[in-house]
């Protein structure tokens, strides 16, 4: 079996902006389709909220891109749902939503087992607390929960998301000190068009090599999509850990994804 090559995108799509622009989702879909990723992790996805004009943004993007979709709710903002989503040209085999600890607005980790590029990987998407240094205490607790969850990954995995903190922030230092994965790309790359900071990331376990990293200055969101190409050498034709149904048993503070 050939080595594994994977093109991954992380994109905070800023779904609330659809309230003011009917073409917002078309622009998000265009940015995704043109990049041709194998797997996409989306943040700030609205399903039938007032800010989305009561539209299901996850379903619409799946239709516009032709990709398979899974959504993971973080919370309900009075009406509808808000959370993360995965789009893939492959097949989603299983999905879980893990509630992250911490005060304030609920945050989650969306975990999908994805069959893509003749292999299976664990793909994680998250979106941590906002508000800069004022949200640092919440993010620090959320990162502890994130690290605990990722320690359970048994095979090739990729984590993407909007962490709402630059690479030099103490909480990012805590995350990297766990030595579970590598940060893909340039530390100084800017991913937010107004804050002029890198707060959107792709991380990959040490078995991956980053062959390409781009911040695509396109799309209608206040975040730019991050596109990473990964390569993984395989040994004896093996490309990942075979999971059993027990690996996906329900645990405390988890919800089934929609």
How do the strands and helices of this protein lay out in sequence?
Elements: E1 4-12, H1 24-35, E2 39-47, H2 57-65, E3 68-75, E4 81-88, E5 91-99, E6 108-116, E7 119-127, H3 136-150, E8 157-162, H4 170-177, E9 182-183, E10 200-204, E11 209-215, E12 226-232, E13 254-255
Parallel strand pairs: 1-2, 7-8
Antiparallel strand pairs: 1-12, 2-4, 3-4, 5-6, 5-13, 6-7, 8-10, 9-10, 11-12
Describe, in short, the structure shown.
The protein is an alpha+beta fold.
Question: Keywords for this structure?
Answer:
6-stranded mixed sheet; alpha+beta; single chain; disordered C terminus; 258 residues; 4 helices
Beta strand count = 13
Estimate percent helicity: 10-25%
CATH architecture: 4-Layer Sandwich
Number of domains: 1
CATH homology superfamily: Endonuclease/exonuclease/phosphatase
Rg on CA atoms, Å: 17 Å
Content of β-strand: 25-35%
Widest sheet: strand order?
Answer: 9-10-8-7-6-5-13
CATH class: Alpha Beta
Structural class: alpha+beta
Tell me the overall shape: globular
CATH topology: Deoxyribonuclease I, Chain A
Instruction: Please identify the oligomeric state.
Output: single chain
Helix and strand sequence: EHEHEEEEEHEHEEEEE
Average pLDDT for all residues: 89
Tell me the span between the first and last alpha carbons. Answer: 33 Å
Low-confidence stretches: 237-258
What does the main sheet amount to? 7 strands, mixed
Mind explaining what this structure looks like?
The protein is α+β, with helices and mostly antiparallel strands and 258 residues long. It has one domain (4-235): 4-Layer Sandwich (Deoxyribonuclease I, Chain A). The protein contains four helices and 13 strands. The protein has helices spanning 24-35, 57-65, 136-150, 170-177; strands spanning 4-12, 39-47, 68-75, 81-88, 91-99, 108-116, 119-127, 157-162, 182-183, 200-204, 209-215, 226-232, 254-255. The protein has a seven-stranded mixed β-sheet with strand order 9-10-8-7-6-5-13, with no helix packed on it. Strand 7 (119-127), helix 3 and strand 8 form a beta-alpha-beta unit. The chain is globular. Residues 237-258 have low confidence and may be disordered.
